Amino acid sequence: MKRSLLTVSAALTLAIPAIVFASSAAHADPISQTSGFYVNPNSSPASWAAANPGDGRAAAIRSEIAQKPMASWFGNWSGDIGSAVGSYVGAADAADKLPLLVAYNIPGRDACGGHSGGGAGSVAAYDSWISAFASAIGNRPAVVVLEPDSLGDFSCMSQAQINDRVGMLSRAAGQFRSKAPNTWAYLDAGNPGWVAAQTMAERLNMAGIGNAHGFSLNVSNYFTTGENTNYGNNVAASLRNYGHNKPFVIDTSRNGKGSNGEWCNPAGRKIGTPTQTGGGAEMLLWLKTPGESDGNCGVGGGSSAGQFLPEVAYKMIYGY
């Protein structure tokens, strides 16, 4: 995923009108409907630890990463999206736990970064995919982060692509609102080192934040919780100028030592605060799985985005 560290200070003027959505009633609270966050027994670190019980790193990876609640990501690799999402949310519901999901399939995904490129083949294909995603959750409680990087990546996109993107995101937020009433959906808003807060608030407004529960920060990045809290509060303040009062969540999976200025598999990073409510935001969530590669770069040289690297995971537990 692209994590440019160039702050965009000037608001981007779009060729489409900035639609102001009236803030609507909050969805039912999925936290109060469940008894904690869901731990996926089939996550990549859990699967690796189970397959390598004699490895000296397995015990630490199992206890410090695999047994923590983390998000599962869904995209064009997921097969039938209704079946994939339905099975995952169903397993969490059977355990009375709250599942964390990331939707990552927007056309032109990772336009600037290039490591996680792909996505649905057309606007119509994405609209159909995300509709099936929301329908598969239905009335069951869930937390969904929509399309990491999608509102930060504008610098590598044409105006027509930008217009299509904010339209898709706006419709996606509406799908979750209408079809998944016990889901909190968050539009992704990048990170503190990427886009100025006022600019991000403008983009969130155009992308239908009025129909989402809130916005997410720091997905797959390393900025400290404090840095994200300050940025999130600034974005939220700017959103109020559009009539929106929205909370935010922070990805703390790899921010235990903060950022060293690199976004793609930097060395010496550390896992952060495990998934919880509160902590400076509405929730601190492990959205990126610690140990999963950002791409063929940094300490993940030779790997592909999403590939689990046990040595990286092991070092991330201890911060070296």
From TrEMBL:
Its EC number is 3.2.1.-. It holds the Pfam family Glyco_hydro_6. It comes from Paractinoplanes rishiriensis. This is Glucanase. Transmembrane segments: none annotated. The active site is at residues 149, 294. Belongs to the glycosyl hydrolase family 6. Substrate binds at residues 73, 194, 221, 263, 288, 292. PANTHER family: 1,4-BETA-D-GLUCAN CELLOBIOHYDROLASE C-RELATED, PTHR34876. GO terms for biological process: cellulose catabolic process.
